[in-house]
Amino acid sequence: MTIETIYLLGDSIFDNSKYVETKYDAVSSLLASIVADKGVNVALDAVDGYVTHDVVRQLTEERSQPYSNNAAAVLSVGGNDALGVAGILMAPVSNVHEALTLLRSITEEFRGFYTNVLDTVTAYYNEYNIRVCTIYNKIPTHKSGYLPIEAMTALALFNDVITEEAAKRDLPVIDLRTICDQESDYSEVSPIEPSRSGGKKIAYAIAKSFDLN
User: Fold this and answer.
1) Ordered alpha helix ranges (H), 63-149
2) What is the DSSP annotation of 1-33?
3) What does pTM read for this prediction?
4) Nearest-5° angle of CA 53, CA 173, CA 70?
5) What tens digit of pLDDT does each residue of 53-72 get?
6) What is the dihedral sign for C-alpha 21, 53, 176, 141?
7) Residue 194: C-alpha distances to residues 11, 14, 37, 73, 83 (Å)
8) Structural domains of the chain ordered from first start
9) pLDDT digit string (tens) for 114-143?
Protein backbone atom coordinates (compact mmCIF):
# COMPACT_ATOMS: atom_id res chain seq x y z
CA MET A 1 0.00 0.00 0.00
CA THR A 2 1.44 3.37 -1.05
CA ILE A 3 1.63 6.06 1.62
CA GLU A 4 1.08 9.60 0.41
CA THR A 5 1.01 11.51 3.69
CA ILE A 6 2.14 10.80 7.24
CA TYR A 7 0.08 12.68 9.81
CA LEU A 8 1.82 13.37 13.12
CA LEU A 9 -0.70 13.39 15.97
CA GLY A 10 -0.23 14.26 19.61
CA ASP A 11 1.88 16.74 21.53
CA SER A 12 5.25 18.53 21.57
CA ILE A 13 7.21 15.38 20.88
CA PHE A 14 6.31 16.22 17.27
CA ASP A 15 5.40 19.90 17.65
CA ASN A 16 8.82 20.84 19.03
CA SER A 17 9.96 23.68 16.75
CA LYS A 18 10.06 26.22 19.58
CA TYR A 19 12.47 24.01 21.53
CA VAL A 20 15.13 23.64 18.82
CA GLU A 21 17.38 26.12 17.05
CA THR A 22 15.41 26.41 13.81
CA LYS A 23 12.14 25.05 12.42
CA TYR A 24 14.19 22.75 10.22
CA ASP A 25 15.44 20.97 13.35
CA ALA A 26 11.91 20.00 14.39
CA VAL A 27 10.75 16.39 14.14
CA SER A 28 8.23 17.11 11.38
CA SER A 29 10.82 18.87 9.20
CA LEU A 30 13.44 16.19 9.79
CA LEU A 31 10.95 13.47 8.86
CA ALA A 32 9.84 15.39 5.79
CA SER A 33 13.44 15.59 4.56
CA ILE A 34 13.90 11.85 5.05
CA VAL A 35 10.78 10.75 3.15
CA ALA A 36 10.70 13.47 0.49
CA ASP A 37 12.51 11.36 -2.09
CA LYS A 38 9.86 8.67 -1.59
CA GLY A 39 7.14 11.10 -2.65
CA VAL A 40 5.65 11.15 0.86
CA ASN A 41 4.38 14.30 2.58
CA VAL A 42 4.35 15.01 6.31
CA ALA A 43 1.47 16.84 7.99
CA LEU A 44 1.97 18.21 11.49
CA ASP A 45 -1.32 17.88 13.36
CA ALA A 46 0.36 17.54 16.77
CA VAL A 47 0.09 20.54 19.09
CA ASP A 48 2.36 21.44 21.97
CA GLY A 49 0.49 20.84 25.23
CA TYR A 50 -2.08 18.41 23.88
CA VAL A 51 -3.33 15.60 26.11
CA THR A 52 -5.31 12.53 25.07
CA HIS A 53 -8.74 14.15 24.92
CA ASP A 54 -7.38 16.96 22.72
CA VAL A 55 -6.46 14.45 20.00
CA VAL A 56 -9.95 12.93 20.18
CA ARG A 57 -11.55 16.36 19.93
CA GLN A 58 -9.27 17.36 17.06
CA LEU A 59 -10.16 14.33 14.97
CA THR A 60 -13.87 14.27 15.73
CA GLU A 61 -14.41 18.02 15.30
CA GLU A 62 -12.16 18.62 12.32
CA ARG A 63 -12.81 15.45 10.34
CA SER A 64 -16.17 14.18 9.13
CA GLN A 65 -14.84 11.28 7.02
CA PRO A 66 -12.04 8.75 7.48
CA TYR A 67 -8.74 9.48 5.77
CA SER A 68 -7.88 7.64 2.58
CA ASN A 69 -6.05 4.33 2.71
CA ASN A 70 -2.95 6.18 1.53
CA ALA A 71 -2.78 8.22 4.74
CA ALA A 72 -0.67 7.14 7.71
CA ALA A 73 -0.77 8.31 11.32
CA VAL A 74 1.85 8.37 14.05
CA LEU A 75 0.52 9.04 17.54
CA SER A 76 2.64 10.35 20.39
CA VAL A 77 0.50 11.42 23.33
CA GLY A 78 0.29 10.72 27.05
CA GLY A 79 3.29 12.58 28.36
CA ASN A 80 1.25 15.63 29.26
CA ASP A 81 -1.39 13.41 30.88
CA ALA A 82 1.40 12.01 33.05
CA LEU A 83 2.75 15.48 33.86
CA GLY A 84 -0.72 16.53 34.90
CA VAL A 85 -0.75 14.00 37.72
CA ALA A 86 2.96 14.20 38.64
CA GLY A 87 2.05 16.08 41.80
CA ILE A 88 0.48 12.93 43.19
CA LEU A 89 3.99 11.58 43.72
CA MET A 90 4.28 13.97 46.65
CA ALA A 91 1.01 12.86 48.27
CA PRO A 92 1.49 11.42 51.77
CA VAL A 93 0.69 7.73 52.18
CA SER A 94 0.99 5.41 55.15
CA ASN A 95 2.29 2.31 53.35
CA VAL A 96 3.32 0.88 49.97
CA HIS A 97 -0.09 -0.74 49.44
CA GLU A 98 -1.79 2.62 49.75
CA ALA A 99 0.69 4.15 47.29
CA LEU A 100 0.14 1.37 44.74
CA THR A 101 -3.63 1.69 45.10
CA LEU A 102 -3.36 5.40 44.36
CA LEU A 103 -1.13 4.80 41.34
CA ARG A 104 -3.45 2.11 40.04
CA SER A 105 -6.42 4.46 40.07
CA ILE A 106 -4.42 7.02 38.07
CA THR A 107 -3.25 4.37 35.62
CA GLU A 108 -6.74 3.03 35.00
CA GLU A 109 -8.07 6.53 34.46
CA PHE A 110 -5.36 7.05 31.84
CA ARG A 111 -6.28 3.71 30.27
CA GLY A 112 -9.79 5.01 29.66
CA PHE A 113 -8.42 8.18 28.06
CA TYR A 114 -5.89 6.33 25.93
CA THR A 115 -8.35 3.67 24.81
CA ASN A 116 -10.61 6.46 23.59
CA VAL A 117 -7.73 7.96 21.60
CA LEU A 118 -6.86 4.67 19.91
CA ASP A 119 -10.49 3.91 19.12
CA THR A 120 -10.80 7.33 17.52
CA VAL A 121 -7.56 7.13 15.53
CA THR A 122 -8.42 3.65 14.22
CA ALA A 123 -11.81 4.97 13.12
CA TYR A 124 -10.13 7.55 10.89
CA TYR A 125 -7.02 5.72 9.66
CA ASN A 126 -6.35 2.26 8.26
CA GLU A 127 -4.91 0.30 11.20
CA TYR A 128 -2.07 -0.99 9.02
CA ASN A 129 -0.86 2.59 8.64
CA ILE A 130 -0.96 3.57 12.32
CA ARG A 131 2.08 3.73 14.59
CA VAL A 132 2.02 4.40 18.33
CA CYS A 133 4.83 5.94 20.37
CA THR A 134 5.64 5.26 23.99
CA ILE A 135 6.60 8.07 26.39
CA TYR A 136 10.36 8.43 26.70
CA ASN A 137 11.83 7.97 30.16
CA LYS A 138 15.45 9.13 29.98
CA ILE A 139 14.64 12.80 30.54
CA PRO A 140 17.51 14.61 32.33
CA THR A 141 15.40 15.50 35.35
CA HIS A 142 18.26 17.37 37.00
CA LYS A 143 17.81 20.05 34.35
CA SER A 144 14.05 20.39 34.69
CA GLY A 145 13.97 22.06 38.09
CA TYR A 146 10.57 20.56 38.86
CA LEU A 147 10.37 17.02 37.56
CA PRO A 148 11.41 14.43 40.17
CA ILE A 149 13.43 11.39 39.10
CA GLU A 150 10.67 9.25 40.61
CA ALA A 151 8.41 10.44 37.79
CA MET A 152 10.47 8.34 35.37
CA THR A 153 9.58 5.24 37.38
CA ALA A 154 5.91 6.18 37.42
CA LEU A 155 5.98 6.56 33.63
CA ALA A 156 6.36 2.80 33.40
CA LEU A 157 2.70 2.48 34.39
CA PHE A 158 1.59 4.79 31.59
CA ASN A 159 3.82 3.04 29.08
CA ASP A 160 2.40 -0.30 30.14
CA VAL A 161 -1.05 0.99 29.20
CA ILE A 162 0.20 2.30 25.86
CA THR A 163 1.95 -0.91 24.85
CA GLU A 164 -0.87 -3.15 26.08
CA GLU A 165 -3.64 -1.22 24.36
CA ALA A 166 -1.60 -0.97 21.15
CA ALA A 167 -0.97 -4.74 21.24
CA LYS A 168 -4.71 -5.42 21.59
CA ARG A 169 -5.19 -3.64 18.26
CA ASP A 170 -2.05 -5.03 16.58
CA LEU A 171 -0.65 -1.51 16.23
CA PRO A 172 3.14 -1.31 15.83
CA VAL A 173 4.90 0.56 18.62
CA ILE A 174 7.79 3.00 18.23
CA ASP A 175 9.53 2.81 21.59
CA LEU A 176 10.93 6.24 22.40
CA ARG A 177 12.39 4.84 25.62
CA THR A 178 15.08 3.07 23.63
CA ILE A 179 15.39 5.72 20.91
CA CYS A 180 15.94 8.83 23.03
CA ASP A 181 18.41 7.32 25.49
CA GLN A 182 21.07 10.04 25.66
CA GLU A 183 21.01 13.40 27.46
CA SER A 184 21.82 15.07 24.15
CA ASP A 185 18.48 13.82 22.80
CA TYR A 186 16.67 16.38 24.95
CA SER A 187 16.36 20.09 24.29
CA GLU A 188 18.47 22.64 26.13
CA VAL A 189 15.46 24.96 26.08
CA SER A 190 13.19 22.45 27.81
CA PRO A 191 14.58 19.05 28.83
CA ILE A 192 11.23 17.32 28.42
CA GLU A 193 11.26 18.05 24.66
CA PRO A 194 13.37 16.38 21.96
CA SER A 195 16.46 18.18 20.69
CA ARG A 196 17.54 18.06 17.06
CA SER A 197 19.51 14.92 17.89
CA GLY A 198 16.55 13.25 19.55
CA GLY A 199 14.18 14.48 16.87
CA LYS A 200 16.35 13.04 14.14
CA LYS A 201 16.33 9.66 15.89
CA ILE A 202 12.55 9.81 16.19
CA ALA A 203 12.16 10.82 12.54
CA TYR A 204 14.32 7.95 11.33
CA ALA A 205 12.44 5.49 13.54
CA ILE A 206 9.14 6.63 12.03
CA ALA A 207 10.47 6.34 8.48
CA LYS A 208 11.90 2.91 9.21
CA SER A 209 8.57 1.70 10.62
CA PHE A 210 6.99 2.44 7.23
CA ASP A 211 10.01 1.12 5.26
CA LEU A 212 10.70 4.63 4.02
CA ASN A 213 14.24 5.09 5.32
Assistant:
1) 79-84, 96-124
2) ----EEEEEESTTTS-GGGSSSGGGSHHHHHHH
3) 0.91
4) 80
5) 999 999 998 876 778 889 99
6) positive
7) 11, 8, 25, 19, 16
8) 5-209 (3.40.50.1110)
9) 999 999 999 999 999 999 999 998 888 777
